[in-house]
Batch of 3 targets.
Target 1
Amino acid sequence: MSLAVDAVTLLAFVPAALALNLTPGADMMFCVGQGLKSGPRAAVAADLGIALGGMVHVALAGLGLGALVAAHPGLFDLIRWIGVAYLLWLALQALRSGALPAAAPPGSARVPCSAPVAGSKKRSIPSSEATISRPPASTGP
């Protein structure tokens, strides 16, 4: 199995990926919000975290997650319920802390907090799966 991507697929993927990533959306608003609240370093850190989340999408697509979910539909529900449990855990942590956290001092930066923003983008998951994952090779005619 070759891991090389043919030129036609690459020429189709790059403009589509750029169009999806350059349009304003949740990612851009998150970066702008972080920049306005904590300065340029926080905005760059948010951007790096979002890029990290995008790389996770591409890696999962390349590993065949889409084909696996297509072959086992119950797996999608499992992944979805794991996400629900994670969000509930985050909500409980926020409720337990009581007050709102203090704003980060200007110039501080946190990359990991922005990766879930990229992970939750509904449009990037199908586009990654459609362009990166490959159907299994058939063994017969």
Target 2
Amino acid sequence: MKQLDPMDASAANAAKSAIEILNDDHRRIIELFSLFENMRNDIDDRRKQRIVETTCLELALHQQIEEEIFYPALRRAFPQHRMLDEASVEHDTAERLIQQLSAMGEDDAQRDATFTVLGHYVRYHIEAEANELFSKARRASIDLETLGMKLVQRKHTLRMRHLRLLGSPGSSEFVTPFGQVAVMQQAG
């Protein structure tokens, strides 16, 4: 799997709208779930575990920037929008599954099933956002380009903090992605 330089990604995303940024995340996350599904019968549990860990990290970062930046902007434009309430519940469900996955090892019998269920939830959430929330955001008086820059900057900051924590003394080779996001929130 090709490693992306976060600095290159930030520069490339600087001129994109918030919806383009989130759609790029969605595509990347769906690709990771698809890659895992294609490995269903693969016996390389370490490789599958790396996909689970990468996906969970990407989801955690994505959810955090949506909850901190994108959803509040939509909430200001649409204070009573039920879709934002549903998105919050979907994020909570995904967070619980990510936490379960973070506690599982590569040899855990429930890992594949839990990750598959997470994939179903995430696909449903992505489809709902694309079909309803994004179209409403385009019609609202929201500066999607400025919002996009804020999303890119925040995600870059979170990713850099995560990488610093991974390299800090006493850290394990893999620090659970959702645990890191919780640490980042407390440290920031």
Target 3
Amino acid sequence: MIKEQVCPFLESVIRLADNFYLFLFYVNISITFVYGWWYGIWSFYEKQTMKAKLFLSVIFLTMLFSACEKAEEPENVAGNQEYSIVNDETLLNGSIQLINEPINFKGAKVVAPFSLIASVQSPVVGGVKLSATSVFVKNNKAYVTYAERGEGYKGALNVLNLSNPATPVLISQVTFSSIDLNASDLSGNVLYLAGSSKKLGAVVIPVQLNGANGTVVNGANNCIPTKVGNAASANGVIQGGNWLYVSTGSTNGGTYCLKKSNLDFVASDLYNGAIYAAANGRSNGNTQLTLESGVNSNLHVYKIGLSDENSEKVIPVGEIKHQNVEPQYAYSGKSTIFMKAGDNVCYVSKGMYGMEAYNVVSGQMVFKSPLNMLTLGNTNAVSADNNYVYMANGADGVAFAEYPPSGNILNIVGVWDDPAYPGSANYVTSDGTYLFVAKGQEGGLKIIKRN
């Protein structure tokens, strides 16, 4: 499953020794400076009159108490306003536009009726409009993560109540001033967020939820990030059994295993290009996967709860590359993987090469998208249910495909795009009833329901 990490420990010991000698050097310099400063002050003090001495003593004591008072201020994320929690539905639901209209497919063959239920505007943090990065759906709640496009670091979490299919309600929102949010997974009343912090790099953030109504608990000790490894970003998180599995990358990354109870490090499997994580269940013995993206991409297959590294399987899936992007982003575009609960098939989005699905037991490819599916776009994300495979194809919209009766080529039965905001289909996920499509900064999040 996960290989224990040894070298980073030795590296930390060496770094600690180096820092100790550097510490002694600075202590020596500091003592010399303080002695000289104090001697000068004392010589000046001794030459003054009694009245002047009294005045100088008052000044000194005031400075001393002020310094002590500032030094005792705790450094905490909440006090520094790194994040903000809002649970006011009246305030939040101004960002939801209810639509409830049937959607029209381009090139439709046989597609069950779907309706566009609502459109959710992207949150704005620090004057920057964000883009949706993932959606996790469970127990009639949708947890939507957001990040800032480009080089900046800002993020948000939206919690949507889906109890009434016709009127989704935004019940809670958390915004982060210096952390991108990339993925989430739920365990009980704790939502785990994977993100990229400007200060810490790859982080996991546990978010306590109110068990009664599902809103985010507004407390000083909630939403505190924990650093994971040495990578710049955590882009996937899966909870299973007593553990968290976190994918970090693209460089200095891999899959990290943490204790779910306290986020302590357990072990890691290190490789560059770890870009997303998925699982077919959340219990010991279920399968957890991490996608390693690049020229030679791989699916890393683990068993939740097993410590035997021989249980890991690596399945080659070929090159993952994005077209019509700047050259530096050709191998760093968004690519997700997806598994249905209890299934052994993993669906892989491969950019300009469309989608391929692999049986994780045999390692064989079982489905793939047709060669003519894409023109200008890239397959950025994929999801599936018992009826269709859904592919978010960027500039080419969202493709709806049926499973083939024979062979392995999916049958595209329709393509949907929002006429108001065409293109930029960056993410898609289905829970069998709802379909969520992320349409970039301006297009926001689209909620579609199968009738």
